[in-house]
Amino acid sequence: MKAPFAILLAACLCMDGGYTIKCYNHLSGTPETIEICPDSQYFCYKSSWIDGGEMEIEKGCVASCPEFRSSYKSLLCCRKDKCNQ
């Protein structure tokens, strides 16, 4: 009885649960929400820049995201739930 249970448990632990990441979703001037990213998007991002003297912020899900920094725009990418606060 123990052997079949152990085999079933091992099989369940090895299966891909189809985990999807949750990210903050936001554009400046709109309310911030949390979105469940599509299966093909593995990163959360937060981009910020100055436009007309105002700080603009954009947040969401993205498939791939290199780290990027410049004097006028910053981009943060991460792979944990709601890490783009």
Automatic annotation (TrEMBL):
Its main location: secreted. SUPFAM superfamilies: Snake toxin-like. PROSITE patterns: SNAKE_TOXIN. Keywords: Disulfide bond, Secreted, Signal. One of its GO terms (cellular component) is extracellular region. Residues 1-20 form the signal peptide. Gene3D superfamilies: CD59 (2.10.60.10). Pfam families: Toxin_cobra-type. It is found in: Secreted. InterPro entries: Snake_3FTx, Snake_toxin-like_sf, Snake_toxin_con_site, Toxin_cobra-type. It comes from the Eukaryota. GO terms for molecular function: toxin activity. This is Uncharacterized protein. It comes from Naja naja.
